[in-house]
Design a protein that fits this description.
This is Molybdopterin-containing oxidoreductase II, DMSO/TMAO/BSO reductase family, monoheme c-type cytochrome. It comes from Campylobacter cuniculorum DSM 23162 = LMG 24588. InterPro entries: Cyt_c-like_dom_sf (IPR036909). This protein has 192 residues and is an alpha+beta fold. The chain has two domains: 104 residues, no CATH class; 58 residues, Cytochrome Bc1 Complex, Chain D, domain 2, CATH 1.10.760. 24% of the residues lie in helices and 26% in strands. It is built from four helices and nine strands; from the N terminus they run H-E-E-E-E-E-E-E-E-E-H-H-H. Strands 1, 2, 3, 4, 5, 6, 7, 8 and 9 form a nine-stranded antiparallel β-sheet that branches. Helix 2 crosses helix 4 and helix 3 runs antiparallel to helix 4. The longest helix is centred in the first third of the chain and has 15 residues. The chain starts with a helix and ends in a 10-residue tail after the last helix. The structure holds heme C. The site of heme C has 12 residues, from helix 3.
Length: 192
């Protein structure tokens, strides 16, 4: 009896959650299913939902925050420049949901858009662990490791980019490491 109740609670807990997945690499986004032209990119470690699959594409839902002054970027929370997805400047994004900002914070939005179909992960723990390993193995060779908590989330991308070419971190993994550093930065707070 107890066991049944336990499984009932577990199943309702799992079903209650959205079906979120993660990519460990930058994922190309397209405004229309058959577009050849990439309209934006979703960055690794950020949760999204797969709404449907068709051919070599998936239709996904991305949720995040938009600064009204820079509406072509979706951010992870409502005040730090931690990018979830970025689009070319002239892309007109058609948000499926938008909640106006409170007291100067950015608007909460959802966007439904096409992306390349790949193997996605059910959680981002393994990819974050890989990013941490890349950071610790590569960034403490010439000088002592500058810890994740040494800099604010907004400062990390420029610092990382200025050093990345001196390391063996492959180009395809660079956004993964940046996202890891920002999400472990001194002033990081969860947005959701
Ligand atoms: C090949 C050697 C080398 C590697 C590898 C390296 N750095 Fe550096 N780093 C330097 C040198 C040299 C400086 C001194 C300033 C300069 O030359 O730009 C420096 C300076 C810094 C600073 C101080 C900047 C400042 O303005 O105070 C930070 C932070 C930093 N590195 C972070 C990193 C990170 C993060 C990585 C890994 C992505 C990394 N470094 C990998 C050589 C390296």
């Amino acid at each position: 009896m107890k066991k049944t109740l336990f499984y009932f609670i577990l199943v309702s807990f799992l079903w209650g959650k959205e079906n979120l997945v993660y990519s460990d690499e930058v994922l190309s986004l397209y405004s229309h299913q058959n577009d050849k032209k990439i309209s934006g990119r979703l960055l690794p470690t950020n949760a999204f939902e797969v709404l449907k699959e068709e051919g070599d594409k998936v239709f996904i839902k991305i949720t995040g925050y938009v600064n009204p002054k820079a509406p072509s970027v979706i951010y992870y929370n409502d005040y730090q420049r931690i990018i979830v997805a970025a689009f070319s400047k002239n892309t007109k994004l058609d948000f499926s949901q938008k909640t106006a900002s409170k007291s100067g914070k950015w608007d909460k939005v959802s966007l439904e858009i096409w992306a390349d179909k790949k193997e996605f992960a059910k959680d981002n723990q393994a990819m974050l662990a890989k990013a941490k390993e890349q950071f610790t193995n590569n960034c403490g060779i010439c000088h002592a490791l500058h810890r994740e908590k040494e800099f604010n989330a907004n400062a990390w991308p420029a610092i990382f980019k200025s050093m990345a070419d001196r390391t063996g971190i492959e180009k395809k993994d660079r956004w993964l490491v940046i996202e890891y550093l920002q999400k472990n930065a001194k002033d990081f707070k969860k947005g959701k």
